[in-house]
Task: structure prediction
Amino acid sequence: MNWMMIDTWTVIAGMLSALSCALLGNFLVLRRMSLMGDAISHAVLPGLAIAFFVTGTRDSFPMFLGASVVGVATAVFTQWISHFGKVEEGAAMGVVFTTLFAIGLILIVHAADHVDLDPGCVLYGTLALTPLNTTTVWGFDVPRVVVSLGAVLALNAITLSLLYKEFKISAFDPDLSTTLGIHSGLMHYLLMGLVAVTTVASFESVGSILVIAMLIVPGAAAFMFTDRLPVMIGLSLVIAVLCAGFGHLGAIVVPGWFGFEGTSTSSAGMMAVVAGLIFVVAVVAAPRYGIVTKFVHRWQISMTILREDILGLIYRLEEHDVTGPTVVPGMLKDAMGVNQLYSKFSLWSLARAGQLRRKDDGAYRITSDGRDSARLLVRSHRLWETYLHHHLHLAPDHVHPTAEQLEHITDARMREELEVDTDQPSKDPHGREIPRT
Result:
């Protein structure tokens, strides 16, 4: 792999575009409007065509201006249709951008003899060629797209920094925002205007695929890791940088893995692929909301409940056997329907915690610590049965299933309140003695 200066500028351009989109994408994700970038990227086509008809030229500024105006109009029309037509916002967005996109196609057809439109450029831009079109900045030759994307990034960063509180409140609770004197509608249109400008500025260089990916994926992936907005914004920016860097590197290296030596694929497309891979990792392995994390958390809860149920079972058996019973995994399968693997693990973990003691023959006997824990569990269960019977007037044979669930979330304070509400009972509705603390 030969890394040249053109590769460095390509990565810088990709990073600037990704960072600009990711900054705004956080608030789009919170507002459940992630596809607004997709809508705007499709809807700008009539703006480009009208700008060409009016000016007769394809210079960057009139094209940018025309596309930006239509991009903002897309957000305005979507809001109007959703508000006045009582249409769900996603549906309103679909109506607006498909209509404007169709109008743009019609206009482009009429201008087909005068303008060339490369579908590939629309999809993945001309990121690899952007370093070839340079301008002089402080005596250095810098790609024009780096200057324009840097200006857009600065605009987004300054606007969000100055109005951070207003954007945050209006994103989480528009009604509260209005109550506090912050015009939520104005903040909405300001955000949509920034999205339109960012989308249009990035459209030619990186194409619609990367723009849409960067508006959605960094914010959505960061949201999987945290509930704090500042942390979410920081993580989204890190993800955006990783997508740009590893995306271009992958565009150079990955084709060689499949025998295409000396060739490369679309950098913008590979950046979007890396973004998708990062999101998959976030969905699977995020420390709070990831699939693996949720599975482990549910498993830990189920094992905690199982261990408590085992202690409760032993305690109830002791009520009928003063010598104290011993427990083996096979016994738990018969008494509780627990498979052999879970039974062995639960008994081992209880022994490790000092609540059971393993005998030489492989059976387990409850310890004093385990008996204390079991006593509190059974006490919670029977207090709940008494409460459900006296206050909700449930029959004694209907209180056990509910009490069996509530006993595992009952702490000392709740037990005291249950005892007061049930007049400090000594027996439950079945006539069994309620253990004392």
Observations:
- The beta strands are 134-137, 140-143, 356-358, 364-366.
- Residues 370-421 form a domain with the Diphtheria Toxin Repressor; domain 2 fold (CATH 1.10.60).
- The mean pLDDT is 82.
